Amino acid sequence: MTSTCEGNSVNRIIMQSRLTYNSYVCINGVVNRKTRNHPADERETVERLLDAAERLFGELGYDGVGMRALAEEAKVNLGAATYHFGSKEALYIETFMRRFRPTNAERLRLLREARTESDGKPLAVEKIVDCMVRPPYMLGLKHPDFHELLARNLFMPPPFLHTAIHREMKPNLDIFIRALRRSLPEVPEDLIRLRTMFSMGALLMFSVKMGKMRAARNAKFDESILKELVRFIASGLQGTPAVPAEDRPPISRLSQPPRG
Known about the structure:
By secondary structure, the chain is mainly alpha-helical. It has 2 domains: 7-88, Homeodomain-like (Arc Repressor Mutant, subunit A), CATH 1.10.10.60; 96-254, Tetracycline Repressor, domain 2. The protein has helices at residues 7-16, 21-36, 40-60, 67-74, 78-85, 88-118, 125-142, 144-155, 162-183, 189-211, 219-238, 251-254. The two termini are 28 Å apart.
């Protein structure tokens, strides 16, 4: 990832160690440029810090972990952690985004591929759902610690991450909502959005459980569970409304990032 920042704004962000969504892009670019110029052993240090942060932040949350504990878990000195990331907030955001953004990109790639194969026809709902949940599901199997972090951040993110998550997720989600609306013209958009929120909750909670079933799993088992999850979500999306439109909760309010 590359990014640019204008002159004094980067220095001010780094000196003050105050992180917002807009400053994340700048700091992330600084971190990545720094590590790209370092030898392999320093890149390994960064990866160990990120892996340790993924485990501890996922288990204990942002407030439950200090930089010293992160350095000890990664088996590096505290100075190295500060040198590479500058602050705990910067480390937290880099830890979350290193898997979150590529996963969102993979979801869109699968959807584009499916649209190309459909030759302009509306996609089957199960196909859309598969494109939506397969990348995060598979990621959770490969990196189970991340799914605990993901679930924590989608349900109760630290205040400085609210806007970052919303801005990262909304464009991605809107593309899937449009695809579902085309395939489900009889289901109101607000209900599709509500049911999509339900589906993400099911995916996250089950993926956390799956990540802890390592001894009992194999590729066939994992794929069969994914297919059942896709069928479950698709069935819910296609169902008739349970309550009249005037009695449904305001989806726009539910989908906004919390204030804090």
